[in-house]
């Protein structure tokens, strides 16, 4: 009987689509995670009858909580959120939105959030994913910026109205959350590195050991959570080469 040996190979990048190269793998550090700071779906997947352990996704950006010394999701800077509110109860007419020198096509006074978002994305300086619009038909509409504007201090848009009916109808614009501001002050706002591997833990556990990648080449577009390396504050780990 002729028995042929079976061999297989794998690299440490298996299961890590965000890892662009092996540079810096040996620079991993063993840390302890504060599991109470991680969220289902965004950071980990739920256990099942056949797989009782929850799994933290690899590639999560992390920061170190000063008081406990434990690690938690990096508290990235906030995304800009703006609200457009129609006042004066118009019964007809249209309006346009101007942002960064470009103006949308005319929108009905009672436009839906989807129509407002589509009009903004039709501008050459706003790509799909740069802004998400929510709200009811006729407003208020909430603009949450992301994509190329992730964590940026985004200039407020302006509007031009051609409304009819109502009492001095207008659109007011307010910034409800300013972009480019830290979301935490407990230490997690300083970027430390990336969770290098998936980490399994049982429901009810509050801590878990994990490897922290502190040096390497990263494809930020493939990370499990949004991350903009241009927005990390002073004092953060910068030992990475990023690709987008």
What can you tell me about this protein's structure?
It is a single chain. The protein is elongated. The N terminus is likely disordered. The chain is about 5% helix and about 35% strand. The strands form five sheets. A five-stranded antiparallel sheet has the order 1-16-14-4-5, with no helix packed on it. It has a four-stranded antiparallel sheet with strand order 10-11-6-13, covered by helices on one side. The protein is built from one helix and 18 strands. With about 240 residues, it is mainly β.
Throw out a few tags for this protein.
244 residues, mainly beta, elongated
Q: How many β strands by DSSP?
A: 18
In terms of DSSP E residues, the strand content is 25-35%
Helix/strand order, N-terminal first: EEEEEEEEEHEEEEEEEEE
Overall average residue pLDDT: 89
**Rg, alpha carbons:** 23 Å
Assembly category: single chain
How many H/I helical runs? 1
Strands ordered across the widest β-sheet: 1-16-14-4-5
What is the secondary structure topology, with strand pairs?
Elements: E1 29-34, E2 44-45, E3 54-56, E4 61-64, E5 71-73, E6 81-87, E7 92-99, E8 102-103, E9 107-108, H1 113-121, E10 131-135, E11 141-145, E12 158-164, E13 170-177, E14 191-195, E15 199-201, E16 207-213, E17 216-219, E18 240-243
Parallel strand pairs: 17-18
Antiparallel strand pairs: 1-16, 2-3, 3-15, 4-5, 4-14, 6-11, 6-13, 7-8, 7-9, 7-12, 10-11, 14-16
Gist of the model:
With 244 residues, the protein is mainly beta. It contains 1 helix and 18 strands.
């Amino acid at each position: 009987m002729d028995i042929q040996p079976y061999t297989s190979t794998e690299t440490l990048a298996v299961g890590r689509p965000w890892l662009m190269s092996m540079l810096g793998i040996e620079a991993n550090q063993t840390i302890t995670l504060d599991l109470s700071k991680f969220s289902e779906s965004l950071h980990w997947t739920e256990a099942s009858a056949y797989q009782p352990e929850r799994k933290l996704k690899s590639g999560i950006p992390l920061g170190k909580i000063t008081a406990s010394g434990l690690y938690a999701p990096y508290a990235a800077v906030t995304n800009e959120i703006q609200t457009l509110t129609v006042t004066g109860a118009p019964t007809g007419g249209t309006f346009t939105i101007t942002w960064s020198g470009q103006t949308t096509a005319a929108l009905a006074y009672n436009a839906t959030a989807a129509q407002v978002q589509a009009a903004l994305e039709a501008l050459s300086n706003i790509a799909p994913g740069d802004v998400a619009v929510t709200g009811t038909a006729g407003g208020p509409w909430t603009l949450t910026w992301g994509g190329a504007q992730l964590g940026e201090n985004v200039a407020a848009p302006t509007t031009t109205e051609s409304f009819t009916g109502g009492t001095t109808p207008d659109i007011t614009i307010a910034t409800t959350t300013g972009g480019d501001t830290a979301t935490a002050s407990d230490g997690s706002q300083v970027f430390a590195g990336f969770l290098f591997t998936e980490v399994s833990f049982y429901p009810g556990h509050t801590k878990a050991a994990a490897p922290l990648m502190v040096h390497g080449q990263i494809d930020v577009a493939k990370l499990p959570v949004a991350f903009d390396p241009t927005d990390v504050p002073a004092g953060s780990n910068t030992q990475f080469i990023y690709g987008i």
